[in-house]
Amino acid sequence: MFFLQSRRVVTPEGVRPAKILVNGTVMLVANYGETVNFGRPMEIEVHDLGDLVISPGVIDAHVHVNDPGSDWEGFESATRAAAAGGVTTLVDMPLNSLPVTTTIAALKAKQEASRRKLWVDVGLYGGLVQGNADQMQDLCDAGVLGVKCFLCHSGLDEFPNALEADLRQAMPILAKARIPLLVHAELLSSPAPAVVDPRSFAQFVASRPEKWELDAIQLMLNLCRETGCQVHIVHLATGAALPMLAAAKQEGLPITVETCPHYLFFENTTVADGDTRFKCAPPIRAGAAAQLWQGLLDGVIDTIGSDHSPCPPEMKHLDTGDFTQAWGGIASLQLTLPAVWTFMRRHGCEDLSLVTKWLTTEPAKLVGIEVRKGQITAGFDADLIVWDPDAKWKVEASELLHRQPITPYDGCEMTGKVVRTYVRGQQVFRDGHLLRQPFAKVLKPWWQGQ
Ligand SMILES: [Zn+2]
Fold first, then answer.
1. CA of 19 to the centre of ligand 1 (A)
2. How many Å lie between the centroid of ligand 1 and the Cα of residue 281?
3. What is the structure's pLDDT at 450?
4. C-alpha 183 to ligand 1 mean position (Å)
5. Residue 346's closest CA among 399, 416, 400?
6. Of the candidates 225, 262, 279, 295, which lies 20 to 30 Å from 319 by C-alpha distance?
7. DSSP 142-209
8. What's the number of domains the chain is made of?
9. 63: CA distance to ligand 1 center in Å?
């Protein structure tokens, strides 16, 4: 048991000087410097962190851990990178592993693969693909925090996109189980311009038109209205969808929206032709960041998730720079907080409560862990990070702790650095070093009693 205190603690009531008693959970939150009276003599160490910020840890609800059955990442390296980046809970996507998480047996394989490898707490998503809607009830009962589907080809033949019939069958089951459906919203509803020069970034972007996103979101809004199933649009990359999403929210539909750090951070970056490190889907579109920023401020976009999606270096085809062949996905698990914070400061916003809302509080609600995690309140898990919002540093891809050292953030200047991470009161990261042994666990939604 120990106290952490700082002049900037992000609490649900706002940022204030405070003193936190930590013992697995947050035992109490007192005023900064306050002498806490326990009614008996108690010698409890106080760690004074001065002006460093203490926030609830980042909850990254969109991570591709790709374990078991692949060497693309893995639970150990992913959760080490998470701890170093101030992520105290991550939720793993159901594809890029073998097997993909579309059955109970596959979910068990995932749970098994994560044993004794977790530095931070982990939740698991199930997958909805063609023909497996009959697995949804079992997956929900087994504790998935959500179900993910694609409306276009996922890039993997073993994870085919769901068809409307699959959605209609699955969504009422998910609605009843209070489990959100996370949707990769691109629908191949109209022909796209052909790519003539495979190295051209502009042609790659044009080959995945905004209209695909808009049509997919429209379909999901209709099905959401029809079934009452909570729909979470992942990685929104176009501002053009914001009016219809705002209207749907106004109407009271259970719809939430995520965007990703790369759609914000790289707003002023001119991507060179052949630089496939920037390939992701939907693509990073010029001019979208300012609109997405407004969407965040207006509350139309609820969460920011990394969509950390690594692959072995050769699959990025950097030697040929061929966007049509390269794996789509950006590896950035450790960088969400600094990337978003750097972007916010660029836009004149230094609101610590806002960044916490998008990276922590709202994701906790999305995945059903909000009664234990996501705020610094007595009784909540002591998932805490200590960070310096003024520290400037430069990303060296080779120093990041995820497995494959390729990321478009390499060489980028960041503002904001995590110096300590605590998971349920245990310090797992401090000043650049991992501490302890992996001890964290797989989570279930709170109503399943964990
Ligand atoms: Zn993803």
1. 37
2. 9
3. 56
4. 10
5. 416
6. 262
7. TT-SEEEEESS--S-TTSPPPPHHHHHHHHHHHHHHT-PEEEE-----S--PPPSSTT-HHHHHHTS-
8. 1
9. 7
Residue 212 alpha carbon to ligand 1 centre in Å: 17
Match 């109503």 to its residue by tokens: 447
Burial 315-327 (b: 16+ CB within 10 A, else e): bbbeeebbbeebb
Between CA 82 and CA 335 the distance in angstroms is: 9
Rounded distance from Cα 150 to ligand 1 centre (Å): 10
Gap from CA of 16 to ligand 1 centroid (Å)? 35
Cα 93 to middle of ligand 1, angstroms: 7
> How far does residue 223's CA lie from ligand 1's centre (Å)?
21
The CA 329 to ligand 1 mean position distance, Å, reads: 8
Give the distance (Å) from ligand 1 centre to CA of residue 316. 16
Task: Write out the residue range of the structural domain in which residue 347 sits.
Answer: 57-373+391-411
Kindly state whether residue 158 falls inside one of the protein's structural domains: yes
Q: What global pTM score does this model have?
A: 0.97
Enter the tokens of residue 278: 């920037």
Please report where in the chains the tokens 């990703």 appear, as a residue: 260
Question: Is residue 280, in this structure, part of any structural domain at all?
Answer: yes
**Dihedral sign (CA 92, 95, 97, 103):** positive
φ and ψ at residue 148, rounded to 5 degrees = -110, 140
Say how far apart CA 183 and CA 168 lie, in whole Å: 14
Structure tokens at 30: 């007192």
Phi-psi region of 431 (alpha: psi -120 to 50; beta: other; left: phi over 0): left
Contact by Cβ (8 Å): 297, 225: no
pLDDT in tens, 296-319: 999 999 999 999 999 999 999 999
User: Which CATH number characterizes residue 191's domain?
Assistant: 3.20.20.140
**Tens digit of each residue's pLDDT (9 = 90 or more) over 163-187:** 999 999 999 999 999 999 999 999 9
Q: For residue 235, how far is its CA from the centre of ligand 1 (angstroms)? A: 8
Residue 13, in any domain of the structure:
no
Q: Does pLDDT of 448 surpass 90?
A: no
Ligand 1 center–CA 388 separation, angstroms: 29
Assigned domain for 31 exists: no
CA of 48 to the centre of ligand 1 (A): 38
* 118 CA → ligand 1 middle, Å: 20
**Cis before residue 282, ω within 30 degrees of 0?**
yes
Q: How far is the CA of 116 from the centre of ligand 1 (A)?
A: 25
